[in-house]
């Protein structure tokens, strides 16, 4: 997904900042992500899959992000941008953890259970695909709204990647497809986190409307 390259990207939004539709979408996304975090953390540990564990941690981070978004919906742009900045850095930290965990699995030669990866990945893809479609209308909002869309988009892509990894593990009898997919997911998390941080910083640097009018 292309990111905004100017300081006025959030001004294109016509979305209400605290509409019932926006808050309802956030609550649904929060419930889905919290539930699948618990499911994937258990399944990932049982299957020995770096990709599933990475996806589970991503679910946890997104659930926290949606909760923050609910807390700042309707507040001033400065507070929403600060929340987005926290979410962006959180995503970067999670991505670094994923890459470190992936390196450990590569060194130890873990062989994950492909059937568990495939089943859980399919269920998560269906759930996250629905959430991404629900949030698609908010993709051009301010940094806070945009960060929610980026997280949901990354989740759906990550779930599809987990399924591809499961097929690769099953076909090759090695854990390398799992390691490769987990590394890609970590890179995607770094990219998404940096997009969020960059737009949030641009919004925080922008003068308040009242100050501009006074000058």
Automatic annotation (TrEMBL):
<keyword id="KW-1133">Transmembrane helix</keyword>
<feature type="transmembrane region" description="Helical">
    <location>
        <begin position="116"/>
        <end position="136"/>
    </location>
</feature>
<feature type="transmembrane region" description="Helical">
    <location>
        <begin position="179"/>
        <end position="197"/>
    </location>
</feature>
<feature type="transmembrane region" description="Helical">
    <location>
        <begin position="84"/>
        <end position="104"/>
    </location>
</feature>
<feature type="domain" description="Cation efflux protein transmembrane">
    <location>
        <begin position="26"/>
        <end position="204"/>
    </location>
</feature>
<protein>
    <submittedName>
        <fullName>Cation transporter</fullName>
    </submittedName>
</protein>
<keyword id="KW-0864">Zinc transport</keyword>
<dbReference type="InterPro" id="IPR058533">
    <property type="entry name" value="Cation_efflux_TM"/>
</dbReference>
<keyword id="KW-0406">Ion transport</keyword>
<dbReference type="InterPro" id="IPR050681">
    <property type="entry name" value="CDF/SLC30A"/>
</dbReference>
<keyword id="KW-0813">Transport</keyword>
<keyword id="KW-0862">Zinc</keyword>
<dbReference type="Pfam" id="PF01545">
    <property type="entry name" value="Cation_efflux"/>
</dbReference>
<feature type="transmembrane region" description="Helical">
    <location>
        <begin position="156"/>
        <end position="173"/>
    </location>
</feature>
<feature type="transmembrane region" description="Helical">
    <location>
        <begin position="25"/>
        <end position="47"/>
    </location>
</feature>
<keyword id="KW-0472">Membrane</keyword>
<feature type="transmembrane region" description="Helical">
    <location>
        <begin position="59"/>
        <end position="77"/>
    </location>
</feature>
<keyword id="KW-0812">Transmembrane</keyword>
<dbReference type="InterPro" id="IPR027469">
    <property type="entry name" value="Cation_efflux_TMD_sf"/>
</dbReference>
């Amino acid at each position: 997904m292309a990111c905004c390259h100017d300081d006025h990207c959030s001004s294109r939004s016509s979305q209400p900042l605290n509409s019932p539709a926006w808050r309802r979408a956030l609550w649904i996304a929060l419930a889905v992500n919290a539930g699948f975090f618990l499911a994937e953390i258990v399944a990932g540990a049982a299957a020995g899959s770096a990709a599933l564990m990475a996806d589970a941690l991503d679910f946890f981070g997104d659930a926290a992000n949606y909760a923050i978004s609910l807390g700042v919906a309707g507040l001033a742009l400065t507070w929403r941008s600060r929340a987005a900045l926290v979410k962006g850095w959180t995503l970067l930290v999670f991505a670094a953890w994923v890459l470190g965990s992936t390196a450990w699995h590569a060194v130890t030669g873990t062989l994950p259970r492909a059937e568990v990866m495939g089943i859980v990945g399919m269920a998560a893809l269906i759930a996250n695909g629905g959430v991404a479609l629900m949030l698609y209308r908010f993709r051009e909002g301010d940094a806070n709204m945009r960060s929610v869309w980026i997280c949901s988009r990354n989740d759906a892509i990550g779930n599809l990647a987990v399924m591809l990894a499961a097929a690769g593990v099953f076909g090759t009898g090695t854990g390398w497809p799992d390691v490769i997919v987990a590394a890609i997911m970590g890179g995607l998390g770094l990219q998404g986190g940096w997009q969020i941080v960059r737009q949030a910083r641009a919004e925080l640097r922008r003068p308040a409307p009242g100050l501009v009018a006074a000058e």
